Amino acid sequence: MIAEEEHGLSGPETSAREKPTVPKKRLRGTKRRDIGRTVFIVSMLAIPIVSWLVFWLYTNSSMIIMAFQSPMGEWTFQNFVTFWHELTAPKSDIGISLRNTFLYFGLNNLIMLPLGTLVAYFIYKKVWGYKFFRVAIFLTSIIPGVVMITCFKEMIKPWGPLASLGVPFPETGLLANNATATPMVMFYCFWTGYASTMLLMCGAMSRIPTEVFEALKLDGCGPFREFTSFVVPLIWPTLSMQIIFNLTGLFNSSGPILLMTGGAYETSTLNYWIFINTYRGTAASGAYNTVSATGLVFTVVALPLILLVRWLTEKVEAVEY
């Protein structure tokens, strides 16, 4: 204090001098970094936000409005009446499309999902020949779909390779017959649709501690009991997520209809029916309005089903490990 008084410095002046000062260049550099970070975040978020606003919010809002409008812009419920008449008419396009949609949904969830999970279990356990089956199954998803469909169509033609081996085929072919066209498209989906399910389930099984399988082996647990009583509960979060995800596409379940048959021979699905009516229809014909009403009806039907299944799956307690 004496030295400070001798130099004529008071207490506040001394404390002010003792505080470290930040150089102006460093402050400017910090501000530039903050601005650059903000610009980067905004630019990264702008694309998905604009995409959501245009392709989801605007599209769905327009669809809801068009469902209650006539082609002339008048408010009406005639679109829902037209939809109901087409749905209940015998052998109507939308009735056939809805039937096929349920067939594809059942194929995906009642056959392919359980069987894909079981195949993933055998591949995870490294049974004999698992490398071959792993490559063969994943190869169908690596090869472009157009190539796979072209090869498949050539294989089942009446003059194709299978016919040359003596396999009997109808003269019109399997894809040009009402009785066999849809089953053949479903068989193609069954043949090529395992890869995504197997990838998810193999990833979920790889998280299971090896000590669990070692303990089960010591206890003499068989493969069936191991899979049903231990593996399925341990991967239930992934399995339930896949079930809910598939259910959100209840009325969108379909196959490669456009490339296989073009919707002919009673192979159309609801997804393809909406596409073809939107593609070939015009605003003046009212096709857009009827399609909008159809989409709104099935959305209202599917929403409570999805919420119910989600509530049921959450009732099953997830195993922590």
| CATH fold-level label of the largest domain | MetI-like fold
Tally the beta strands: 0
Main sheet specs: none
Output the number of helix runs: 16
Beta percentage is: under 5%
Number of domains: 2
Given this structure, which CATH class of the largest domain is correct? Mainly Alpha
Structural class determined from secondary elements: mainly alpha
What would CATH call the homologous superfamily of the largest domain? MetI-like
How would you state the average pLDDT, rounded?
Answer: 84
Uncertain segments: 1-10, 12-16
What is the overall shape? globular
CATH architecture of the largest domain: Orthogonal Bundle
Helix and strand run: HHHHHHHHHHHHHHHH
Task: Report, as a whole number of angstroms, the end-to-end distance.
Answer: 65 Å
